Structure formats: structure tokens, C-alpha cells
Predict the structure of Serine hydroxymethyltransferase.
Amino acid sequence: MSHQPAIPALAAADPEVAGLVEDEAKRQHEKIRLIASENYVSQAVLEATGTVLTNKYSEGYAGKRYYEGQQLIDQVETLAIERAKSVFGAEHANVQPYSGSPANLAAYLAFAKPGDTVLGMALPDGGHLTHGWSVSATGKWFTPVRYGVGKETGRVDLDQVRDLAREHRPKLIFAGGTAIPRTIDFPAFAEIAREVGAVLVADIAHIAGLVAGGAHPSPVGHAQVITTTTHKTLRGPRGAMILSDAEHAKAVDKAVFPGLQGGPHNHTTAAIAVALGEAAKPSFADYAHAIVANAKALAEALVERGYDLVSGGTDNHLLLIDLTNKGVAGKPAAQALDRAGIELNYNTVPFDPRKPFDPSGIRLGTAAITTRGLRPEHQPQVAEWIDRTVAAVAKDDEAALPAIAAEIRELLASFPIPGYTA
């Protein structure tokens, strides 16, 4: 049993770190990983992230660098850019942002000034910290206005979005978030943004793989700027991209460099190129649609067991569950599920009366288990394991959890992961 690709040099030089890597590979193999922002990358992506490209500094852009020796790095970055434009049908792509938050910060730097008004989804309703939430720099440096979901529907209240936009005339409007289980209506957001003269930023970090695979409508042609991480459903390395139309491309590039960061991480850029190459294959579309099929099957199985899903279900990879009717809070449930072999996160639900660090809900997603090969017919069993664990928490029955974990390990033995040989 070992990490793949093998790490003999690391094991010889630093057995302590190597041991932790090996243990983490085994942990990822043995658990049903339902964290909505996680996935398994291919071994090719893993190999790309561990190459000598990490040795090279490359401030600037292809053909316009500040250091010499860029002949091959320029080709790597250009390849990633062209693949991003092709996969998403975008006019421009910047593959240098280090992660999703800096990508969003670049949109602020490019198209707003400190103190300007920005409109984003409230964090408790499913938005992201960088969409203007109070503890984020974006909520401190700009004037945030927040929209949410309807109390009865659990879906984005577009009438509220329109009313707030008309009243406050924001410079930026963010569409997307971190806990949205339903299809994002990009054309409706675009209409509102046009009406008030705002730049529409579509944050598709969670759904980029679904968009690439045709399992979710694309914001291209509706949002002038699109930000995304490259992991999650896109199944690439821990990085980010910004897509834009040609009109906004120069401002985006200037905001990323020199506005926010120095040299890009070239090993990550190469891995992004590899992941985008994978996303261009027909099999990726099958994978993207399978993610949604698994999520819908899991949602149906949980509803049948009496679980309260925000918005009543899902259109994408993500489920948000309010555990109030089960008499269990989200945090102890998530921690117990981890001990039982199911990895997810506790999460605030809309109109949650509990505090964010001890909320009422849990959030889960099906990207990683889909990559692993689980299908809709497996989801009733996954729901049964979740239900048994939540019931055990309600009864303070810790002894029930090891048996569930053993059953999960037995099932997963037939579904190997990239990056680990059992």
C-alpha cells in the first residue's frame, strides 16, 4: 500500500513527512469523501505538480517576462490559456491566480475602487467570504450589499437582487457561491447587471467542472468576468483562473500581475493544463453528468429518510441539509460522520438560528465519489450510512460508528483512487 507516484526520495530524506503523506493517501482511500469542494485528481495531474517547473520564477506574461529562461514556461502557460479558452468558450483566460480568493480580489482591483458598492450573496445563504462578507477584506474595503434566498424556496431571490441593484447601483455584482444546490440563472443576473451598469462576476468555483462538461449552463456570454478554482468539480490542482470577454481582458491581467501577485506557480500552471486537457475529452462530459445523477440520487434517498434539504433537493453536485428535525447540530454530526468513514463539513443553512461555528447544517457533494466510480445505485446505501450515524449521534451511541466505517472500507476496496495503490 503506497502513494502513487511513489515518493522514495522523500521517504529517505524526511520519513516523518513521507509517513504523513502515505497515511493521508490511505485515509483518502478508506473514506467516502463528500466535501463539496474536494475531488481526486488524476495521477497525471499529481505528477505535473511535482516537476522541476516549481524551480522557475516567471513574473509577467508569456513574451513579456521580467526574468530570462522562459522559453518553455511560456509554452506551458500559453497551452493552459488556450485549453481554458477552448474548454469554456471564453475570449480570454488568465491562469496565474494562486487560488479562488485572489482571483475574486483581482475582479475588485480591476473594476472597483475602495469604498465602491458591491452586491453579493450573503454568506449564511450560500455566498462566499470574498463576495463582500464582513470579516473578509472585501467587506472591509468595499461597501457590501447582500442578497439571499427565499425563506420558503431556499433559492436565490432574483426580485431582491434586482431591487437591491436598482437601489444601490453597485459597481460589481457577484453570482455564485459556496453552498448553492440549484442552477444559477446567469442570464437573469446579466440582465440586472446591464440595467444598473455593473460588471457581472460569475464565481463558478464549485460548478466549473459541470459547466465544462455541459451539466450546468455556462456564464460565458452573460458575465463579463468569470472566476473559478481549478480543483473541485474541474478536477485539477489547487489553483485558479479568470475568464473574461476581450473588453475586460487587459484590466483582469493587470490586476493579477502586477496588481496582486508576483511570479505564477508554474508547476500548478502545468497541472491546470493537464486537467483542462482531460476536461476536453468526451469522457469528462460523462463524468460531469454522473456527478449530478449521483447528487440527485443521494438527495432522493435522504429525503426518503426524512432529511430536510435546503431548496428541497439539488441541480448540481451539492446538497445542503438542515439537521434541526433530526435533533442534531451540524458540527457534532460532521465530526461523528468523519469517525464513521464519511467526510463532509458542517455548514450554516439559510436563516440559521445557530452560530456559524456550531450551525444547524451539513454540506456535501458528489464529485469525489463520482471520480471514484460510485453510481446512483450506491447512493441509497450512502444515505443509510449517513442516517445511521446521525441517529447514533442523537442517541450518543459512539459504539455504532466503527461498524459503519468497516462497511464503508469494504465497499471502497473495489473503487481504487488515483494516487494510491492498495
